[in-house]
Amino acid sequence: MILAPAPVADPAAPLARRNPVAKLGAALLFSLPLISTVDPVTPAAALLVELALLPAFGVRMRVLARRLAPLLLAAAGILVSMVLFAADRSGTLLLALGPIQITTGVLTTATALILRIFAVALPGIIVFATTDPTDLADALVQNAKAPARFAIGALAAFRLLPLLGQEWRALALARRARGVDAGRNPVARLRLFASTAFALLVGALRRGVRLSVAMDSRGFDARTPRTHARLQRFTGADTALLAGAAGLAALILTVAVLTGFFQPVIS
């Protein structure tokens, strides 16, 4: 599965060995400032920096491409929406299809939004590709002082994520065995997709309730402090990673402002 939670990067890579909380904080510090701009240059520069740092995290390009594949659907949706419904049609007219006018301004805005989605999502993908979920939960409790109930519950949900794909295939095969098939009818396909998604949601909720009851019965809701089998240490190198991420984000925004490319979301 594309969203499989198991780490797939080289664990011996320099930045892959860093504390999970440090990697998660660095991803947030680097990607959040990108939300403040709508120009295409700033997220493009951020993407170049992120791709340049991939070897330091031990992530291979083929693995990254597989995990970025779902974002291509979002990019296509943004492009179609901007072409059809964009209010600003400034710039040079490139193509006119009846009432739809495709201009350079529309394509520039769509490109900026698509690049920003990839630039914001890529750090998170790198973090989860280089981090074991159990280590992340332990680090959240030990270093970020997150509630143990929240961290362990999130870990359990993350571990169960691959089951959604298996259940979807099982539901589809079961309905096909009962003769429920949409064929080539797009409306029937949409209805079948909606009903399968609803059945998957109901099954996930039931499993979540059973898991919650099972965890509570084993003392996960106890108020007493819990011990940790894996100690997560936050070192000076982890602090340097946070500072480096904040510094790179500030440098990219500063260069964009000085060169005149920076366009704030609210002008």
* Tally of distinct domains: 2
Work out the helix count: 9
Which structural class fits the helix and strand makeup?
A: mainly alpha
Which of globular, elongated, flat, extended, rod-shaped describes the shape?
Answer: flat
- Rounded radius of gyration (Å): 23 Å
N-to-C series of helices and strands: HHHHEEHHHHH
Helix content: 55-70%
Which strand order spans the largest sheet, edge to edge or round the barrel? Answer: 1-2
Strand and helix map with partners:
Layout: H1 20-31, H2 41-52, H3 54-57, H4 61-85, E1 93-97, E2 100-103, H5 104-129, H6 133-142, H7 148-177, H8 186-217, H9 236-258
Antiparallel strand pairs: 1-2
Helix pairs in contact: 1-5, 1-9, 2-5, 2-9, 4-5, 6-7, 7-8
